[in-house]
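anyone else get weird line breaks when pasting these?? whatever heres mine. first is seq + tokens for prot A
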Amino acid sequence: MSETSVVAHPPETIEGWYALHQILRRSSAAPASRDDEIPRIDISRINGELKDGWSAICTLIGSIDSLMLIHFRRTVEEIHEAQQIGGMLRTAGLEVSYSFLSVTEAGLYHITAELAADATRRGGSVGDAEYTRQVKERVDAELATDHVRRRVYPPFPADMPYVCFYPMSKRRDTGQNWYTLSLDERSRLMHAHGLTGRRYAGRVQQIITGAIGFESWEWGVTLFAKDPLTFKKLVTDMRFDEVSAKYADFGEFYVGRVEPSGSTSG
């Protein structure tokens, strides 16, 4: 069967908070200074009135950039307010060199495959009234679980000071086109990929954010850990999964440490 003959449907997803990652570096016009003179700013004035979300200031390590600001907010309007923090740091000799807008996401590959197969058996189709009713029912059930709520409304990782962020996309090459695979195949691949991540439960907090329609990259991955070496081991293991080995492209990696005085929950 050729790629173009495969009937491919997108997975249903659950979204939560909007996310913004801002990477900052010293302006070329700024005077030279030591790393320990990087300004520490109090963001409680921006975040104090919010009921949902949090922000973190991270000192980057091994990068030509200096800081990474991470914001999670309920709406894009609140993300825009938080975005102004990067602009405020211009007076401290820092400028935004890269930013990434996305939204927390839980992909329901397995559930979507089940419901699509059920629609075929009853002579219906993906997107019809019965399919839509079942999707809402399953989404409501998933949102009632602590596991999914932590994925789309992630808690601040107070005991995991190290952070790693990178963007990624799925390939659309001839013979390696993720978007022409059947739902069953994508569900199988993502299930195996998830099993790898589960081996790191308790050692890593992983936050997946969707960026399709927002950025040129399709997802953002933010990892928090107690030991930065865990990032190397986890990413290495996941690259040997079939889904990553065949279908994943990765962007720049940013690694750093969360500053305790520069993080606050809403």
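and prot B, same format (seq, then tokens)
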Amino acid sequence: MRKVIAVVPAAGFGRRFGAGTNKPFITLLDKPLVVWALETLQATKEIAEIIPVFKESDMEEGVRIVEDYGLSKVKRIAPGGKERQDSVYNGLKLITDKSAVVLIHDGARPLVDKTLIRNTIKGLEGYDGAVAALPPKDTIKETDENGDIRKTLKRQSLWAVQTPQVFYYKRIMDAYEKAMKEGFYSTDDSALVERQGGRIRVVMGSYKNIKITTPEDLDIAELFLKKAGF
């Protein structure tokens, strides 16, 4: 079986949370936000190594939490970049095993579980990538630049993409290098593989696997965790 290496971008500013603490280190039930995802990856036997990506100004704090929480699968920490794509690319460049499978998971999604991680890894077989995603609950409209509705999209064919996303190292690294060379940026890793003709499989995600973007999201995550007994 190929070695699975997790790259965890966690270099966000978290401007909506106010000044003082960058988002990965905001407290969620007495732990830094990013620790929740890192601990789950640490506890997932399929994951051989974890490469967190922190802002350069957060490196010292990142090393501290790796030590404090016994995250032994973290051997290296990558410096963050200006955009998420730059940060992930920096993480990818630290991987030396070119035959590895790469799992990319946002540090701002603290409620990922081992089952979703394993299902996404399994979903890679026969494809160039596998992504966790959910069918939208709401009706989706497409508008023009003025906000006028152009059409109503069919929900049956729409998916809201999450992380984790899983790729063969060579496929995702080639896609990243091409995108960086051409100045193409996307907030979604699989989009870079798609633009090179890669086949991506959707794996059913989780409605609990929310991304923490606003203080309200933090409240929701706390409710989920307390209900789970944390």
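btw re prot B: The two ends are 34 Å apart (CA to CA). The chain has a mean pLDDT of 94.
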